[in-house]
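Aggregate trends can hide what the representation actually does to any particular protein. For completeness, the protein is quoted in full, as a sequence line and a line of C-alpha cells.
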Amino acid sequence: MLYLTNDLGLLPFFLPLGIIGFYRYLWFFIKVLAWIVYEPVQPKANPTYIPSQDVTIIVPTIDAGEEFKIAARSWLACDPKEIVIITEESMRGPLEDLANEVDPTKIRVLTVSKANKRLQMVAGVNATTTEILVFADDDAIWKPTMLTYILACFEDLKMGGVGTCQTVHAVNPNGHQTVWEVLAGFRLTIRNIEVAASTHIDGGVCCLSGRTAAYRTLILKDPAFQFGFQNDLWLGKYPLNSGDDKFLTRWMVTHGWNTFVQVCPEAELFSTFKDNWRFIKQVLRWTRNTWRSDFRSLFTERKIWSRHPFVAFTMVDKIFNPISLLSGPILVIIFALGQAENAGPTNAPLPIWNVILSYFGWLLLTRGLKLLPHFYRRPQDVIHLPAWLLFNYYFAIMKVYALFTLHEVGWGTRAGVGTTLAADIEKEGNAEQARLDNLSQQEHDEKVSDHVQLDMSYTPDRSLDVNPNRN
C-alpha cells in the first residue's frame, strides 16, 4: 500500500490516519520509556513496619471456593498479624470451615447483614487493630515477598495507599488458559506498563486495584471517609457497590496522601479471571466504574490536575480513545469503497481484499509489538493476537455503550449485589432508626453488636501511631 502515498489525491485518507497513528504511538512510547526507567521501592534492612505486627489482611467475599485456600496459604506465607474474612451471615459456616482448614489461629470470620462489598470492607476496617491494612480478593495469590515490598513504601509517612502488579492465574488446574484468560493477561500486561509509567512520572495512578491494595488504617477509620464510602451515589440516586478501589484511590488524591504501585516480581499477585464469555461482563462493569470515577476526578474533584497532571491527561486520553481507535477501520472502509466507485477502464483500483489484509497485517504487527513483554513470558499466547485485535475494537464499542448506561450499577456477574436504589437505602435507614428508638440502651448495644458481629473483646496491642520512632 505504500506506493499509494505517491498519489496526492489520497492525502485526505492517509493524513488523518497518519496523525492519529503518530499521536497514539508517541504516547505509548513515552509510557514504555517511563516503564523502563521506573524503579520499585526496595525494603530497608531495618524496616519500620513488620508484617507480623503491623498488617491485617481484609477479605470481603460472599462465595469463596477452593481457590480461597490456595490464596489464604499464600497470604499466611507473608506472615501477617491477622486475616479477617467479612461475609454475609449465610456464608459464615462454609467460610469458617475453609478458615479452619487453613489456620484458625490467624483467620477469623465476621459477618454483615447483607451482601454489600463496601459494607463488608468498612466492617473489616473497624475490626482492624494494626497500622496497615491490606484489602485482597479471595482469589488473589501472593508471593512470600509481597508484604515486605508493600510495607517498604510506607516508610514515607505521607504514603496513604500502595498497589501491586498483576498477572493471570489459570482456573484450570493444569494451567491451561482459555482465550478469555489470555485476553485478561494482555490487559494486565498493558496495565502494568501504564501504572509503572504514571507512578514514575508524577507519582499518581488511575486506580489502586482492589485485587490487592494496602492503606494506612487511620485514613479509613475516619468517619468522614466511611460515610462517603458507604453513601457513594451516582447522579444522586444510584448507590455504587463496585468501584470501591476507584473511590479509595480518589480519596488518597483529594486528601493529600501519596500513592505508589510496586511493579516488580516480588510484589506480583496472581488472580483468576472469568474463563468464559462472562469475562465480557466483568470488563463492562470495570469500564462503567472507570467512566464514573474519571469524570469525578477530572470535573468534580479536580485535584488530580494539580497533583498528578500526567494521570489527568491519561484520563482525558481514555475519553477519546474509542474515537481514535475506531477511526482507523472506518477510514479504511471509506477508502476501499471509494476505490471501487472510482474504478474505470483506465484506472484499475486495488482489490478490496488487498487493502483490508494489508491494514489487518499492520494492526497485528503493531499490536504485537505492544505486547512483547507478555510474549517474553508466555510466547504461546501469540496465537491469540487476532482475538486481541478484535477484542480491542469490541472494547471501543463497549466503552461507548458503557458511557450511555452509567446508571447500571449492578455487578453483572453477581445477581442482586449492589442494585439497591437510594430511596430504598433511606427507607431502610428510617425503619432501622424507628426500631432503635424503641429499644433500651442495653438492647440497642446488643443490636449493633449482632448487626456486624464483631469481636469487641479483641484489643489492639499497638496504637495507630504513624511515627516511625515509636517505642
Remarks:
- Residues 2-28+324-403 form one domain.
